């Protein structure tokens, strides 16, 4: 394809410092959005119905949208179904699954926090008590009616919850048209130690986890990706339960210098674009050659994808290639955008790592594509999107932990602090607070 044909192509590179570039950057840095109002209303109605009617509502929605002949008896996955799943998967799958689970386990074990105590000479003991939540619900999307089981989602949610020590872990996933679940998902759950699995999807599944039904017990934490209905349902029940995050479409930002391979850059952009028509793939480069050749590669690789239509729409609507003045500007803009996945496809990426302030995950070098992080590298692939990497972190063991403060005073220490407690309480107009200290200080009854 000739460079003169670029004007006809799917993305036109623009200079970051141009008027068009500044407009595009303004859009990128202010891209946070919630579900539209119609989705919010519909999700609210679904949640209210599940809260009121329990299993009956879950079954009704499942029949309507997933499995027409679904019955209450099919709601919970049986031990027989799990045993059968192990018979249906092959050794190739089990080898890859085992590798991924071990890598994720090893990485997340480093995240585990411990309780601690701090003692003072006057006898005061303070500290933090770290404990897991009692229960967690792990939502796993259906994956095109079970045809593309999202095994990695099971691992990325189930393994950290297990390390945290959550005793009651429930997986919930939509059934296929015949009321079944992919054997790969069931085996992945089994390898994570999850044996309680239910068949339900979308907002009604989130409602069942948040409120509980006759069959599905309510949980303390809900994690897992999903479409806009799942995301909106999680937002609406947040506060009643903890959620991992409000997630938007998948994102990647690639910083590339003239040592990058345009074919690899294009492939990584497409790896995001194939997720969703709203996915966001961005290239920031110092090289006009890399920008031009990447566009050519995108067009050449698109017809090879099984999800060509989705990827093409994503790139046409949201794909962005920006030419920066230098690498320093690239890093500055990347921090402003605060992307979910940040790839540094540059000659010497590690010195730049110290300058990265906002990103869900950072991939360093030409042989660290985002796909490594999705599956086998070890770090979690549930990451903040829509610019929330400025304030949020990846899902991890801490998502399933809570912390309680510990305070213990000796008589001597209390008497030493009593006047200060009284002074501050009276300043705030809280006389009962002050009296709770004074009555002990004065020995009154």
Describe this structure in words.
Strands 1-11-10-9-12-13 form a six-stranded parallel sheet, with helices on both faces. The model is unreliable at 1-7 (pLDDT under 50). α16 (411-427) packs antiparallel against α17. The relative contact order is 0.15. With 445 residues, it is α/β, with parallel strands linked by helices. The protein has three domains: 3-30 and 249-390, Rossmann fold, CATH 3.40.50; 37-115 and 130-243, Rossmann fold, CATH 3.40.50; 409-441, no CATH class. It has 17 helices and 14 strands.
Order of adjacent strands in the largest pleated sheet? 1-11-10-9-12-13
Text of the CATH class of the largest domain: Alpha Beta
Fraction of residues in helix:
40-55%
CATH architecture of the largest domain: 3-Layer(aba) Sandwich
Low-confidence stretches: 1-7
Radius of gyration: 26 Å
Strand content: 15-25%
CATH level-four homologous superfamily name of the largest domain: Nitrogenase molybdenum iron protein domain
The end-to-end distance, rounded to whole angstroms, is: 91 Å
Largest sheet: 6 strands, parallel
Question: What is the mean pLDDT?
Answer: 95
Structural class: alpha/beta
- The CATH topology of the largest domain: Rossmann fold
Number of β-strand runs: 14
